Amino acid sequence: MLRLATYFMLRKQVLKLYRDTLRSIRQVPDRDSQLELRKWARQDFENNKNLEEEITIKMMIKHGERSLKELQQSLELSK
Q1: Contact (CB, 8 A) for 36 and 79
Q2: Any residues with CB less than 8 A from the CB of 17 and at least 6 apart, and which?
Q3: pTM reported for the whole predicted model
Q4: Do residues 78 and 29 touch, judged by C-beta distance below 8 A?
Q5: Alpha-carbon distance 60 to 65, whole Å?
Q6: Please, are residues 75 and 24 in contact by the beta-carbon 8 Å criterion?
Q7: Residues 6 or more apart from 42 whose CB is under 8 A from it?
């Protein structure tokens, strides 16, 4: 079980990642792609919301950050 301080720290990171992901998705020019990416992101976060092990949560955060970085780089290249 996570300590309370660790829980809130990780929760803050996850919420920031989710907000940043949704902001980046809004920059996708194609509306259908935006909807599909938003659905994918929401489902991904929903599937992992019940994780309880700190190391697993941190791994998923890193995975999400890499995916977000890839999306942002793709958006930059498409400009």
Answers
A1: no
A2: 61, 64, 65, 68
A3: 0.91
A4: yes
A5: 9
A6: yes
A7: none
* Residue range 29-73, pLDDT digits in tens: 999 999 999 999 999 999 999 999 999 999 999 999 999 999 999
d(CA 4, CA 58): 15
Q: Judge residue 58's burial from the number of C-beta atoms within 10 Å of its C-beta, 0-12 exposed, 13-18 middle, 19 or more buried.
A: middle
- Centre a 10 Å sphere on the Cβ of residue 21 and count the other Cβ atoms it contains: 23
Residue 59 corresponds to which tokens in the numbers above? 């791994």
55, two tokens: 């190391």
How far apart are alpha carbons 19 and 44 in whole angstroms? 14
Two tokens, residue 47: 């599937």
